[in-house]
Specification:
Layout: E1 3-10, H1 14-25, E2 30-35, E3 40-46, E4 51-57, H2 60-64, H3 67-75, E5 82-88, H4 92-99, E6 104-109, E7 115-121, H5 123-126, E8 134-138, E9 157-166, H6 172-175, E10 181-184, E11 188-196, E12 201-203
Parallel strand pairs: 1-4, 5-8, 9-10
Antiparallel strand pairs: 1-5, 2-3, 2-6, 3-4, 6-7, 7-8, 9-11, 11-12
Length: 204
């Protein structure tokens, strides 16, 4: 069963983006860490069952040697525009077989020194011209998932409820029953909605 895990927003500067997100939308964030070998770093906006990931290139030379790093550098914008959506699964091997792709092991070091690990498939689709969804299986306890990180928002949040995407291509059958995924004409992530008790917040 697939569900929305997180949405990536590519930004030029993590601290400035975090300040803007808090001032403009009331959403707080926490330091994430570095993606080893990809030249990118992130901040996490925990939203309960899912989260928003602010990602930036922090080591340009390292990023130039990674497909994900090059994608991040090429798609960074000055505003908070969603760039990719990741769907959570507990059977990444099955998704990999469907996509004819071996899962890729990834990790990052948290500020407390602990290592957070996961496996991905679909990165080539994400970094390709369609910016299609990719898939993750976390190798951690639920309480260690980024969405569960304690944070003090200025609004009461209930999570990412809708992500509108374009051009699903061969992923259509996989995405048909994912709650919150809406498919329209276009390319990549078109917009996303975060539900709060004060009303919906839309980015995109």
């Amino acid at each position: 069963m697939l569900s929305i895990d997180h949405v990536i927003v590519l930004v030029p500067d993590l601290s400035r983006a975090a300040d803007h997100l808090l001032d403009e939308y009331g959403l707080a964030s926490v330091t994430g860490g570095r993606h080893t070998g990809h030249g990118t770093g992130n901040r996490i906006v925990p939203l309960g069952s899912n989260y928003l990931e602010l990602m930036a290139v922090v080591e340009p030379v390292e990023a130039a040697g990674s497909a994900m790093g090059r994608w991040a550098a090429a798609n960074t914008t000055a505003d908070l525009t969603p760039a990719a959506v990741c769907l959570r699964t507990d059977d990444i091997a099955s998704i990999g077989r469907t996509l004819d792709e071996e899962p890729e092991a990834m990790s990052r070091q948290r500020p407390d020194g602990s290592i957070l690990s996961w496996r991905l498939v679909g990165l080539s689709d994400m970094t390709g011209p369609g910016n299609l969804p990719f898939f993750i299986e976390w190798q951690c306890q639920p309480e260690d998932h980024p969405a569960a990180t304690p944070v003090e928002h200025r609004v009461d949040v209930m999570g990412i409820t809708i992500v509108t995407i374009g051009a699903p291509g061969t992923l259509g059958p996989l995405l048909a029953d994912v709650v919150g995924i809406r498919i329209e004409d276009g390319s990549g992530v078109i917009d996303m909605t975060i539900e709060t008790l004060s009303g919906p917040l839309t980015l995109g």
